[in-house]
Design goal:
Elements (H helix, E strand, L loop, with lengths): L2 H6 L3 E9 L4 H13 L4 E6 L2 E4 L9 E10 L3 H14 L14 E7 L4 E3 L2 E3 L8 H10 L6 H6 L5 E5 L9
Antiparallel strand pairs: 1-4, 1-5, 2-4, 3-4, 3-8, 6-7
Length: 171
């Protein structure tokens, strides 16, 4: 579907950050994308390349990260609940803040809206500090990231792990 057509279909444009650093990370992220695309009223529009990044404010192995853009008719908390259910199904545990994880799914952007709820803040409050969000987001939605934002995170270690389409090979 042409990009202009995706902008006119019903629902909200949402950017979702994906990450994992425990287990088979590539498979977990691929399965998560399949599950996200299967949510009621939700269609996967774009998926960034897959990037390898060192943990920030955490320990453990390096992460694999990507960003996906979806169009959804779900409301913000309904999407958050669905994403957390996908994390739980992938074995996500929350023993402490920033613990290593089998899967992490974050709502980064909800169109141009600002959301401030006890369970959800959008834009994600730390997305502008994280290369693992900004670099893949700039790949699939360059209008959403400024050169100054990318420059601010240029010192963070981020490496291309797999080019676009990686998720199609994760069966």
């Amino acid at each position: 579907m042409a990009a202009w057509a995706a902008m006119t279909e019903p629902g909200h444009w949402v950017a979702i950050g994906l990450g994992a650093n425990l287990g088979d990370c590539g498979q977990a992220l691929g399965q998560a994308l399949k599950a996200i695309g299967g949510l009621t009223g939700t269609r996967l529009l774009a998926v960034s390349s897959l990037y390898s990044t060192a943990p920030i404010d955490s320990s453990g192995p390096d992460y694999l990260n990507a960003v996906a853009a979806v169009r959804t008719t779900l409301q913000p908390l309904a999407l958050l609940d669905a994403l957390q259910a996908i994390e739980l199904a992938a074995g996500r545990e929350r023993p402490y803040r920033n613990a290593p994880r089998t899967l992490d799914l974050d709502i980064e952007l909800w169109g141009d809206e600002r959301i401030a709820l006890p369970r959800l803040s959008v834009p994600h409050p730390r997305m502008h500090e994280r290369a693992f969000v900004l670099v893949p987001l700039a790949e699939i939605a360059p209008e959403r990231v400024t050169p100054a934002q990318l420059q601010a995170v240029a010192g963070q270690g981020i490496c291309l792990a797999h080019k676009p389409g990686w998720h199609l090979r994760q069966a």
